[in-house]
Design a protein that fits this description.
By secondary structure, this protein is an alpha/beta fold. It contains 23 helices and 25 strands. It is globular and about 75 Å long.
Length: about 625
């Protein structure tokens, strides 16, 4: 690498580049704090220290990605998400499975929470007691660095979780706070009496009303009421304290220097509290996130930020930058609405609501950012469908949300699904759903009934979902096992730490026997694997699917078909998806009016023959017309 003087110059140039994104945000947040000048000096020192400590190969990667800022938007990006222990046992075990990921076509790997959690119930690893250590069940930080280097050598980017809203109550900061250290008590949101917690609670919502009701916990041992949004063992951080910002920046850059490419910033919507509100997505949250991104761009510019905010479309888009934060905040955010609307349209066989929501609330293009698209993840499905959107297409919001829960639990007449409820809120009627992709798509029920036709339809539903997220725009994320149609895992009920949390039903252990048999047997697992592998290969081959190209929802006459254009400079790609178990027909003239000059399917890489002037779509068909 360049001599130290050149390194210093590079740092100065990057600091100058991002100064206007960083300092105004921090002055607005903390400028009146009595220690602001010292905080600013200490932050600058921390940025310089992290840059000086950054390994040479990562500094080369910084330069490469500065020169290719769209690296994460390209059509060769495809993600795979897993719990380390459930995929490969340990970090070292992951090294033995990289050939499998390469074979599937993966270029982005997300390790589910892998930092050291509290013992016992840790909210799936999101209750972290040490951000600088790896969960000892998975290995050591040296193991982590070996895996990150191996991924980098294969052209794979590594994503890990960094929880920003809270720490475990066993974190050293929390332990000091519990012992009465005033400095560390100011790291958290603590109150001397129940008066303020009661006032805040008037407008707060409960995240886990069944097993963690309320938002505050009283600790008699030190006589404080602590803000605990998620669980009693997760103490909310006080982001109004600039020292918290500094501590998190140092942690963030420490992880970046261990080889992390993508920081999934968890629970960001809850970071700032304001009396009389839900304390979600307050304006200061976006100021904080812009400043955090600026810190990465200064000291580790190869790193991008994925902001986890599972909220309504109007709330979600600001996490990708809006107004003063346009192009300056998150690089990635989950497209929760695409996932919700997929399941909604699949149940109703009607894409009207899906088209309305995705056309009305989402822009065709984003600046310096894109979506993480997915059909299933480690979490439950909450039916984030507003009453206003439901009314716009002639539905009742409460009735439709209740229908979806009933349908995917499997109790609605004619349902093909087999899920389970999560966090039923009797007060609001909210019912969320757990279940694997395969189970919710109908495979578990069809196999149990010996229904060969039902099995075949379930396989097609799964592949349609994978083709949707591969083409809509962004980075498609495949949750571990969904490429093999793994079923629900009811064994979670036998594990004391998991039995209370139905989300573990869709967090099975990887079935490596099914992987071994994928070349030998014509099973649903093999069919889904090869179908998914083909989808990702075709995605790589179609440069027009670059996330920087616009996505425009269009409306064919058939309500059973969802359609959108990918607006590439080289021409339109028209993507069609049949959400029904019946044949659907889309007029050829309509397709050509959307900009299609050749009737060629880029997904199958074959010509499309029209029948009586229409494109005929079999049940759950997916077509990428060019």
């Amino acid at each position: 690498m360049a001599p130290a003087s050149a390194d210093d110059e590079i740092f100065a140039l990057r600091l100058d580049r991002s100064a206007s994104d960083l300092w105004p945000m921090l002055e607005a947040l903390y400028g009146r704090h009595p220690a602001f000048d010292a905080f600013r000096a200490n932050l600058l020192k921390a940025l310089k220290k992290a840059w000086a400590a950054r390994p040479a190969d990562l500094k080369r990667l910084d330069l490469k990605r500065d020169l290719e800022p769209d690296w994460f938007q390209r059509s060769d990006m495809a993600g795979y998400v897993f719990y380390i222990d459930r995929f490969a046992g340990t970090l070292r075990g992951v090294l033995d499975k990289l050939d499998y990921l390469s074979d599937l076509g993966i270029t982005y790997v997300h390790f589910m929470p892998c930092l050291k959690p509290r013992p016992g119930d840790s909210d799936g690893g999101y209750s972290v007691m040490d951000y600088r250590q790896i969960n000892p069940a998975y290995g050591t930080m040296a193991d982590f660095e070996a895996v990150s280097a191996a991924l980098r050598a294969r052209g794979m980017s590594l994503c890990i979780d960094l929880v920003l809203n809270h720490t475990a109550k066993e974190h050293p900061w929390a332990k000091k706070a519990a012992k009465g250290d005033a400095r560390y008590q100011d790291y958290y949101l603590m109150f001397d009496s129940p008066e303020m917690p009661e006032r805040y609670s008037e407008t707060l919502v409960e995240v886990f009303p069944e097993h963690a009701p309320g938002n505050f916990t009283h600790y008699p041992a030190f006589d404080r009421w602590v803000w605990t949004t998620f669980n009693e063992h997760q103490w909310d951080l006080n982001w109004a304290n600039p020292q918290v910002f500094l501590e998190i920046v140092e942690i963030m850059l420490h992880l970046a220097n261990r080889g992390v490419d993508v920081l999934r910033l968890d629970a960001v919507a809850f970071m700032w509290k304001r009396l009389g509100t839900r304390c979600q997505s307050e304006p200061e949250v976006h100021m904080l996130l812009q400043a955090l991104r600026a810190c990465s761009r200064i000291a580790a510019p190869a790193v991008i930020h994925l902001e986890e905010a599972i909220v309504s479309p109007s709330e979600m888009l600001p996490y990708l930058g809006r107004g003063q934060h346009d192009g300056k905040e998150g690089n990635l955010a989950y497209h929760n609405s695409l996932m919700v609307q997929f399941w909604s349209a699949l149940a109703t066989r009607d894409t009207g609501l899906m088209g309305h929501v995705l056309a009305t609330h989402f822009p065709e293009t984003l600046r310096n950012a894109t979506y993480a698209t997915y059909i299933r993840c480690h979490d439950d499905i909450g039916w984030a469908i507003t009453d206003e959107d439901a009314r716009a297409v002639g539905m009742s919001g409460p009735a439709h949300r209740a229908f979806l829960s009933d349908f995917y639990e499997g109790g609605f007449p004619g349902s093909f699904a087999q899920g389970t409820l999560f966090q039923v809120n009797e007060a609001t009627g909210d019912k969320r759903i757990s279940g694997s992709f395969a189970a919710l798509a109908g495979l578990d029920r069809a196999q149990a009934a010996g229904d060969a036709a039902g099995v075949a339809l379930a396989v097609q539903r799964i592949l349609m979902g994978h083709a949707l997220i591969a083409s809509f725009g962004g980075i498609p994320l495949i949750y571990m096992g969904d490429e093999l149609a793994l079923p629900n895992d009811h064994g979670y009920l036998d594990v004391p730490e998991h039995a209370h949390d139905s989300r573990w039903i869709h967090r099975p252990r990887m079935d490596w026997q099914a992987v071994a048999r994928r070349n030998e047997e014509d099973t649903p697992a093999a069919q889904v694997f090869w179908g998914t592998r083909h989808i990702l290969a075709r995605r790589r081959a179609v440069a027009a699917l670059h996330a920087g190209n616009g996505t425009r929802v269009v409306f064919p006459d058939s309500r059973g078909v969802f359609a959108f254009q990918r607006l590439a400079p080289t021409g339109v790609v028209l993507c069609l998806f049949n959400f029904t178990e019946d044949w659907q027909h889309v007029p050829e003239d309509w397709c050509r009016a959307q900009g299609i000059s050749q009737m060629h399917d880029a997904l199958s890489d074959h010509p499309v023959e029209t029948h009586q002037g229409a494109v005929a779509l079999p049940p759950y068909a997916r077509v990428w017309l060019v």
